[in-house]
Amino acid sequence: MRRITRIATVGIASAALALSATACGGKKSTDTPSSDGTAKAAASAAIAYDIGGRGDQSFNDAAYAGLEQAKTQLKVAGNEAEPTDGEGEADKVQRLTELARKGNNPVIGVGFAYAPAVKKVAAKFPNTTFGIIDDTSVTGPNIANLVFNEEQGSYLAGVAAAKASKSGTVGFIGGVEVPLIKKFEAGFAQGVKDTNPNAKVLTKYLSQPPNFEGFAKPDLGKAAAQGQLDASADVIYAAAGLAGSGAIEAAANKGAWAIGVDSDQYNQAGLSKYKERILTSVTKDVSDSVFNLIKSVKDGKPEAGEIRYGLDKDGVGLADSNPEYKKMTDLIAAVDKAKADIIAKKITVKTAP
Length: 353
Hints:
38% of the residues lie in helices and 20% in strands. The chain is α/β, with parallel strands linked by helices.
C-alpha cells in the first residue's frame, strides 16, 4: 500500500491565520534569477482556496502542497488567494479575475464552489488555463476538471472501520450535505456493511447548502462526533474539511479511533496532539493533481477536460503512517483485498447512499 508522505513535509500555517486572510491577499510572485545572474520574471501559478483556507490540515493544505512542489521543482512563482467568510459568487469571480489579470497560468479553484466563477472567468481569458478541483459541471477548452473517486477511498475506510470497531457502531460526519460529500458517505457505508453486515453506521451532516460553515467550524465537528460517541460509535470518519479536526479531537479524547480525510492527517502538525488516535486517512492526491496541471502548462501542453484520479492510479487510498495501523494485519489484508477487487471491477462502489 502506498504511503502518502509528500503532504506531511509541508509546513502548515495556523487555521486562524488562514481564516483571517483577505481575498486575493496571498503571497506575491517573486522573480527568479536567470543563468547569467540577472533577474527575470518567473512563470507563475495561482490557487484560490476553498472554505477554511490554508491551514485546514486537509483539503486546502493538499492543494498548497502541490503548489509548493511546483515552486521547488519547476521553479515557478506561486500566488495564493484566501476565501472570506460568507462570500458569494461575485467574490470568487473577482478573485479568479485578479489572479488571471496578474498573469498567473494556471489559475486553480480549490473546490466545487468555484464552478460558476470558473465558467465566467475562463471565457474571458482564453489563453489562461483554469483548473477546478472536484467538479465536472463546467467545461471548456481551457478548463481542467481535476476529480477523484472519493467513494473508492471511502470504501476502504469503511472496511478499516468495520475491522477496527469493537462496538459494531461507527460514525460518518459530512461537512455539508452536497453530492460530493455523499460520495464519501456512500462508499464508507458500503465498505462497512460489506465487511460486517451487522454493523451500524451513524450519519450526521453539519450544515445544509447554501450554508457551508460545516466545512469551516471545528466546534460543529466536535459536537457531532461527541453525539456519535455517546451512541456507542468507536470509529469516526469525518469528511468535513477544517470542521473534521473537531471530530478528530472528540474521538481522540474518548479513546476512539478517528479516520482522517484528503491529507494524511496523522502527519499534520496541527493535529499532532491527537495523532495516536488517527487510525488512517482517506487520501486524495490533490497535491499531484495541482502539480501536474502546473507542469502541463509550463511544458506547453496544458491539461484540459476531465482528469480523474482513482484507486487504479493511486489517486485515492488509505494512509498507513500510524504504527498501530500497521500492526492490524487482518485489517490490512481486508483493505488490500478490497482495493484489488475494486481495481479489478469485482466491487462496484456506490456514489450515492
